[in-house]
């Protein structure tokens, strides 16, 4: 890519210079006859000849590329490696790519002002001003090898826009070339959700936590501050994920504060433990937290029991511990062992 870029930049310069010389000639600043046959201004002749090198070189390359139905063009060569029984020439491959490219299901990510990454059902393509990289997803692995975070003193915890992730597209297609993608972290979720190839993450790549993940950590931390609720009844599976054991019980523990404006008062919940911590936290965030706005005081946020609809706050959430010898007689079930 670098070689191509340099060559084309030199060509651009030469073409510009040629146009400049032709312009000077047309405007009469240079005497063409004197230039070509005279010896008075030999410098001009030398410069004019030099200026022709670029366009002639470009022309030669274009003629070379155009041989055999443009099969020598760098893009055609990259497509031609995917020729098979169904796709006899690079034009057939290009036509397949075009059909998928026109699909509404394709994903298009602008990675900077001149480069974009396109993911279709079968292809991954990176297009820039002077280059096109393409790989078929069936013969390709995606290796995440670097995560760079650029911190800004004024950035907030919600701001993860300055994290970039580098992926190497490694193809096993004979003749195929690997290439590197550099994506903003905000685009990574969409990107990895769309690609169908295997994704390998190198051990040293650590992704920063998203606001939702941070929020989950904060809520869990808040709940661990509350007393544990002991029970001698065996805990059932979580009613939502049906996978983890229900380990959460709502126990009204916060001070009795009447409903204020849109903030309802907490009420006791008599439901047995029915949710695991992960499902409760997901429920709490989904029903009560707007992640697009700053969270002022987590403890004051209220949600409602998914079963009986009793309002609760995080102070009213307890982890449950099963103790077959725990005796609830004579003590409220909300009490805890010390
Ligand atoms: Zn669950
Ligand atoms: Zn309830
Ligand atoms: Zn409460």
UniProtKB/TrEMBL annotation:
Membrane-spanning parts: 12-30, 42-60
An individual GO BP term: protein ubiquitination
Listed GO MF terms: ubiquitin protein ligase activity
GO cellular component: endoplasmic reticulum; membrane
Annotated keywords: Membrane, Transmembrane, Transmembrane helix
InterPro entries tied to this protein: TM129 (IPR018801)
Compartments where located: Membrane
Residue ranges of coiled coil: none
Primary localization class, coarse: membrane
Membrane topology: Multi-pass membrane protein
Family: Belongs to the TMEM129 family.
Name assigned to this protein: Uncharacterized protein
Source species of the chain: Cotesia glomerata (Lepidopteran parasitic wasp)
Taxon lineage: Eukaryota, Metazoa, Ecdysozoa, Arthropoda, Hexapoda
